[in-house]
Amino acid sequence: MATDTPVLIVGGGLSGLTSAMLLARQDVRCVLVERHSRTSIQYKFAGISPRSMEIFREAGLEEDIRANRTGDQQAGGVARGRTLSDPAIEWMMPSAWPGVDGLGPADPATCDQHVLEPILRAEAARLGADVRFGTELVSCGQDPDGVNAVVVDRASNTEQTIRAQYLIAADGASGTLRDRLGIGRSGPGVLQHWMNIIFDTDLSPYLLGKRFTSCFVTDLNATFTPRESGRWLLALQYDAEHGERPESFDEQRCRELVRKGAGQPDVRADLLDAREWEVAACIADRFREQRAFLVGDAAHLMPPTGAFGGNTGIHDAHNLAWKLAFVVKGAAGPALLDSYDAERRPVAAHTLEQALARLQAWFKDPQGRLPEPVEMVDGYDVVFGQRYRDGAILAEGDDPDRPFAVARDLSGQPGTRAPHLVVESDSRRLSILDLFGGTFVLLTGAGGSAWCEAIRDLSARLPLSFQCYRIGDGGDLGDVDGEWPDRYGVTNGGAVLVRPDGFVAWRAREMVEDAGTKLREVTRRLHIGAN
Ligand SMILES: Cc1cc2nc3c(=O)[nH]c(=O)nc-3n(C[C@H](O)[C@H](O)[C@H](O)COP(=O)(O)OP(=O)(O)OC[C@H]3O[C@@H](n4cnc5c(N)ncnc54)[C@H](O)[C@@H]3O)c2cc1C
């Protein structure tokens, strides 16, 4: 039996599950196929950035994720010492996400991938996504009107065809869709070989009350990361180029390594798992081929240093989901989808450079394969400073040739994440970010009635309804700290149009002569409101 669906998602990892959950929230039917019978059991992603937490907050999952967190939220950042017992342990980074405190309504969280993915899967299914684990995509082709895929149910070995309007390739680093779509990739490729050694122990007597999200131990050139209570991850490099093999990490050697890194020759270390993985860096030459879009590791593969890889995949999914939803529902023209590659690929390239800079700075490079590092910027620039210069935004004319820039401050510039502002609605205080997510939102000040009238008029005429809020005295929202005009770089008569993903699409610093004509021009240039 064939299935018809607006969107087919291949891959049930972080990026695919986030895509399914966000599409389902926008009432877009989708089918997700994942070849494994269950979500990942590996320790990989753990550090959810504050921006990703904003996305999960918008999806109503913040509380659930915090309730299931796997790390100590007060644990601070990354420490360094000769061994774990080194009395002179110092901070390499006192916070896992330096420079981002107070920038938004959501703190970062530590939640391992094997805990987070089931939360996303359950929410996607609850919202109506057709999530099929144990189902593998085996072939796929596309024509101008859609995508044809053949999937196999691995338990019954039965085939099924799926016809979709669009395809999201979230099949990760080892997926084949990028190749099948004829998309090349560039970058240095595999750089290092690592082992993840998971063990149970009690190290508390030796840590002397010190807490960290991970600790780099220089005697081993390795990191220790605390996981669930009493469980630890030791990650260290091995020298595959000179013949070292994962099999050489037997139980006895792993235990010795743990004891050496802990600086405790007799400490108990009950080995649970030892598994190899590769540090690699590459990026797809384009993130779109006709009706297919690459997200997550299928699009960009980066070292885990900085904890950017999975977060970037979550942001890809968030950037793409509303665009697909708008096009599928006829609220935007297909040209809107061109903005996905234009916006996300430069961000991924910049983030990849930053992950490499951290790898270079923090770990030895015995094979000498790391490229020349770029200047390392702090977490703020990577997590919040992303500024799209091209895509579904109307830039203000400065530096128009650059596709991407880092915004040192968020002040309502088109292409940046809309600034956090505390507002009051019906005596309830909330972040202005809590108003974004479903549709485009027009923000204006007390002197912006003409914008509100114009947007209401447009909503009545277009297959797309906008929301509009006047902020300040006599408006819809109280400006609790009196910061609205400064924070958003407008006067009281100015206006800011915020996209469903919370990024500023366009800004008028002050009132214009004809607000209706201006907004019609803006929506036309953004390809929204018309086919
Ligand atoms: C040691 C380590 C630590 C890390 N720590 C962090 C961190 O703290 N923060 C962070 O942001 N990132 C981190 N990362 C990176 C993060 O884990 C990855 O970026 C993320 O898991 C990628 O998710 P994904 O959904 O794009 O791909 P994947 O998780 O690889 O999912 C792809 C899925 O597609 C499925 N699939 C493939 N082909 C098919 C097919 N034909 N049919 C059906 N299904 C298919 C696969 O089975 C797989 O489940 C870390 C990575 C490592 C290795």
List strands and helices in order, with pairings.
Layout lengths: L2 E8 L3 H12 L4 E5 L12 E2 L1 H9 L3 H6 L10 E4 L8 E4 L15 E2 L2 H14 L3 E4 L1 E9 L2 E8 L4 E12 L7 H4 L4 E16 L3 H4 L6 E4 L4 E5 L4 E8 L12 H12 L7 E15 L3 E2 L2 E3 L5 E2 L7 H20 L9 H25 L16 H5 L2 E3 L15 E3 L15 E4 L2 E4 L9 E5 L3 H13 L5 E5 L6 E2 L4 H5 L6 E4 L5 E5 L6 H11 L6
Parallel strand pairs: 1-2, 1-10, 2-7, 4-12, 10-17, 23-24
Antiparallel strand pairs: 3-6, 4-5, 8-9, 9-10, 11-14, 11-15, 12-13, 13-14, 15-18, 16-17, 19-20, 21-22, 21-25, 23-26, 26-27
The structure holds flavin-adenine dinucleotide.
Description:
Helix 1 runs parallel beside helix 4 (113-126), helix 1 runs parallel beside helix 8 and helix 8 (309-328) packs antiparallel against helix 9 (338-362). The strands form six sheets. Strands 1, 2, 7, 8, 9, 10, 16 and 17 form an eight-stranded mixed β-sheet that branches. An eight-stranded mixed β-sheet has the order 5-4-12-13-14-11-15-18, sandwiched between helices. The protein is of the alpha+beta class. The chain has helices spanning 14-25, 50-58, 62-67, 113-126, 177-180, 204-207, 251-262, 309-328, 338-362, 379-383, 449-461, 484-488, 515-525; strands at 3-10, 30-34, 47-48, 78-81, 90-93, 109-110, 130-133, 135-143, 146-153, 158-169, 185-200, 214-217, 222-226, 231-238, 270-284, 288-289, 292-294, 300-301, 386-388, 404-406, 422-425, 428-431, 441-445, 467-471, 478-479, 495-498, 504-508. The protein has three domains: 2-72 and 105-186 and 281-377, FAD/NAD(P)-binding domain, CATH 3.50.50.60; 189-279, 2-Layer Sandwich (D-Amino Acid Oxidase, Chain A, domain 2); 418-526, Glutaredoxin (3-Layer(aba) Sandwich). The chain is globular and about 75 Å long. Strand 21 (422-425) and strand 22 form a beta hairpin. Flavin-adenine dinucleotide binds at residues 10-16, 33-36, 44-47, 113, 136-137, 170-173, 175, 196, 277, 296-297, 304, 307-311, 313.
